[in-house]
Design a protein that fits this description.
By secondary structure, the chain is mostly helical. It has a single domain, classed as Ferritin (Up-down Bundle), CATH 1.20.1260.10. The chain has 5 helices and no strands. Helix 1 runs antiparallel to helix 2. The structure holds fe (ii) ion (2 copies). One fe (ii) ion (FE2) binds next to helix 5.
Length: 154
């Protein structure tokens, strides 16, 4: 892979991760006073680490991180003004799972395409971010399942 191509992929992840920080902070405020609020805040903190690590690796490769604009709406058919204000916990969790799945599949795709040619840190950053998204997804899915089971009991 050419360095320029890699930089554009990394900027895509950078933009997605920045959006996730904003999203999870907003969700944490929205559900203030709940356990989920704390989880969203801690998840945002992890996404911020992803942002920082991606920015560092982009700079190490001679680039400068930049935001691509709204990268989340297209994941929801372009209708995100609304999806972002995901109403209710269930829609919020479903939306988060969609975004985390996109991040994971893109991290996996890039990991398949880059080897050691850009140094070992790149693979480590991509792998660590992937694992974190995997953990986030697992929690969101489990919480959604619990929530849906509770709904059935009503
Ligand atoms: Fe992330
Ligand atoms: Fe995540």
């Amino acid at each position: 892979m050419q360095r320029e191509d890699l930089l554009s992929y990394l900027n895509w992840f950078y933009s997605l991760e920045v959006s996730q920080v904003d999203l999870y902070i907003a969700q944490s405020k929205k559900f203030k006073g709940t356990y989920e609020s704390i989880v969203f805040a801690r998840t945002a903190a992890v996404e911020q680490q992803h942002v920082d690590k991606l920015a560092a690796i982009i700079r190490r490769l001679g680039g400068e991180p930049y935001l691509l604009g709204d990268v989340i709406s297209p994941l929801f058919g372009g209708l995100l003004g609304k999806a972002l204000s995901f109403t209710g916990l269930k829609k919020t969790l479903q939306g988060n799972i969609t975004i985390e799945n996109k991040a994971m599949s893109d991290y996996v795709a890039l990991l398949k395409r880059v080897g050691e040619e850009f140094g070992p840190e790149l693979q480590t950053v991509l792998q660590h971010n992937l694992v974190d998204e995997d953990v986030h997804t697992a929690w969101f899915v489990q919480r959604l399942t619990d929530y849906e089971l509770l709904e059935l009991k009503d």
